[in-house]
Write a structure and sequence with these properties.
The protein has 452 residues and is an alpha/beta fold. It has 2 domains: 96 residues, Urease, subunit C, domain 1; 313 residues, Alpha-Beta Barrel (TIM Barrel), CATH 3.20.20. The chain has 13 helices and 16 strands. It has a 9-stranded parallel sheet with strand order 12-11-10-9-8-7-6-5-13. Strands 3-2-1-4-14-15-16 form a 7-stranded mixed sheet. Helix 4 packs across helix 7 and helix 12 crosses helix 13. The protein binds zinc ion (ZN). Zinc ion binds next to strand 5. The site of zinc ion has 4 residues, from strand 5.
Length: 452
């Protein structure tokens, strides 16, 4: 008997890293895993000493925020070049967020036509919308819902007040789905923004002062309490401060379902050392806080983090620079650099980097979004979603990125691994130099199960 494909290298499974390991694949599925002499196969890919990790799941992608559904194509192309095989797409598409079945069907169709990788979908509700459509969207397979409690745009990124948060949490508790939140208190942000505008000052520190830690923690605390009352799973999509994780921990110890996510830029940048050089290029919401990086790495070390995400935005460089810090768009592109950037940071903190990539970028997000065990691990019976990480020293250059955005705050940074190849459901889509996958390969991945 012979397999269709064998992939060789140091195979990173949830239990162990296997040097000289192999993965045997038939069709889209992993059939056997072993070490030493591999079984016969029609096609063999030998990656030597490189690590083979499960394909990354980017827990927070905004492909549609500026370019609408057309953004799926360049964003998913960049994803596979960065070892990401599943994007968890945020609902805040331009011009209307994914809040109805009609919009859901349109997005699934766009995924089938435009995406190089698989895509799981968040849904949302418009302000004052009742929760009926949430039940239909959940039935259709959305993996979670997401809201913001601070308005960035009245339609595309609106504020959902406490009464509606509570109603959505009640629905999510019944459905067994997480509710994700962009956690900044609108009144505190608006008050401080007005105050800072009046000072006439500019610069990244001014942006931070507009959105103080208190705004983030107040929104987080209210949401955690509302979720605790309903029994729903509260998921905080970006925690920028160690205190945020303490809040989560308290609720978790009380038996409540809470999870927290960190975007990789909170782990790698500090406005004190990087603010002068990068300025508005690292303007994100909530802001990257000074002096907390190491304490955030401790959250990884202590396994208090559910997932690491890119929060990839397709915003142009022009949108960031040239004007006042108040007018610069918030957000960064980063789906292509996410895995090497996180790997590099983990290695610098003397943890097992391939194992951490597998855990925080595949296993834990797959479990949160109900994609496990189809996605999230190199395991027999799972989809053959693989990323190959080659060790070395590689300087990141966004002019060669595949996201059609072609700027990055990570430019010039030395990463200690690069993505040498990516496989989506058994198909090689990236060979380290060229995208060899097709834009109709990606599929919508419905939620498989409720969170454990
Ligand atoms: Zn986001």
């Amino acid at each position: 008997m012979s397999y269709e494909k064998v992939v060789r290298g140091t195979v990173v499974t949830p239990e162990a890293s296997i040097p000289g390991g192999w993965i045997a694949i038939d069709g889209e599925t992993i059939r056997e895993i072993g070490e030493g002499k591999p079984p016969a196969a029609l096609e063999v890919h030998d990656f030597g000493q490189s690590w083979i990790v499960p394909g990354g799941i980017d827990a927070q992608t905004h492909a549609g925020s500026y370019w609408g559904l057309a953004g799926l194509e360049p964003t998913s192309r960049a994803a596979v070049c960065g070892g990401i095989t599943t994007m968890v797409e945020m609902p805040f598409d331009n011009p209307i967020p994914l809040s109805t079945m009609e919009l859901f069907h349109a997005k699934v169709k766009a995924i089938e036509n435009l995406s190089y990788c698989d895509v799981a979908l968040y849904g949302t509700c418009a302000p004052h919308q009742d929760t009926d459509e949430m039940y239909r969207l959940a039935e259709a397979g959305v993996c979670a819902f997401k809201i913001s409690v601070c308005e960035s745009h009245p339609v595309r990124f609106p504020r959902i007040p406490a009464d509606q948060q509570l109603a959505m949490l009640q629905a999510c508790a019944e459905l067994g789905l997480p509710l994700g939140i962009h956690n900044e208190d609108q009144e505190i942000v608006r008050y401080n923004t007005q105050r800072m505008r009046e000072t006439g000052k500019e610069g990244l520190a001014v942006h931070s002062a507009c959105r103080p830690e208190a705004a983030e923690l107040a929104a987080t605390a209210l949401f955690l309490e509302l979720a605790a009352v309903t029994g729903a799973q509260a998921h905080i999509v970006h925690i920028s401060t160690p205190r945020g994780f303490e809040l989560l921990d308290g609720y978790r110890k009380g038996g409540h379902k809470t999870t927290g996510e960190i975007c990789v830029h909170y782990l790698l940048f500090d406005p004190e050392s990087d603010g002068e050089k990068l300025g508005a290029l690292i303007k994100v919401n909530p802001p990257i806080r000074p002096g907390v990086r190491e304490a955030l790495w401790d959250q990884i070390r202590n396994d208090r983090v559910q997932c690491i995400s890119s929060d990839h935005s397709t915003m142009s460089r022009e949108n960031k620079l040239g004007g006042s810090i108040f007018d610069a768009g918030p957000g960064v592109p980063g789906i292509e650099s996410l895995m090497p950037a996180f790997f590099t940071g983990v290695e610098a903190h003397e943890m097992d980097a391939p194992a951490a990539v597998a855990r925080f970028m595949s296993e834990k997000p797959a479990k949160l979004f109900g994609l496990w065990p189809k996605k999230g691990a190199i395991a027999v019976g799972a989809d053959a979603d693989l990323a190959v990480l080659q060790p070395g020293r590689f300087i990141y250059d966004s002019s060669k990125a595949h996201d059609d955005v072609n700027w990055s705050p990570f430019d010039g940074m030395t990463f200690t691994a690069k993505v040498a190849s990516t496989f989506v459901r058994g198909r090689q889509v990236w060979n380290g130099a060229d995208v060899i996958g097709q834009k109709d390969l990606g599929q919508f991945v419905p939620r498989q199960q409720s969170p454990s």
